[in-house]
Fold:
Amino acid sequence: MTRLPLRRSTLVVGLVCTLASGFADAQWVLLARRAIGRIEQMQQATPQTGEVLDTATVIIDAPAERVYAVIAQRIRGAQNVTVTRTEDANRTLEFSNGKQIASIHVSVLGDTLAQLLVSAAGAQPSPMPAIVDHILAACKELNVECERAQK
Structure:
C-alpha cells in the first residue's frame, strides 16, 4: 500500500529535478549566446616605461581550426607584420610590426565554438585597434557576427 505513494513522490521529485536542470542549462545557453561575438578588450600601461599591454578576447561561433586558419591567413597577409613564431598544433601565432609584439591563441570550446585570445605589448600607440579590425574582418569571412563590446 505505501509503495504506490512512494513511487509517485519519487517520480515527481525526479521530474522536478530534471526540469530544474533543464532550466539551468537554458539559462547558461542564453548567457553564453549573449557573449558570443562580443570582443572584450583591456589595456594597461606600465608606469616605468610607458609600454602598453593589451588583451582582447572573443568567443566565435565557428570551429577552432577554421577560426585559426582564417586569422593566421589574415596576419600573414598583413602589411608591415612579420610572423615570428607559429605553433599550428596549438593554434598559436606570434607576430610583430617592429615596435610591438603580439600573439593569438585559439581555444576549442565546443565542436563549433572557439575562443580567440590576443595579447600585445610594446610602445605606444597600441596595435590592438588594428588587430580588432582584422578580427572583425575574419568574423565576416567566417559568416559570423562579431562586434566591439560597449564600454
In short: The first helix runs from residue 3 to 35. The longest strand covers residues 100-110. The chain has three helices and seven strands.
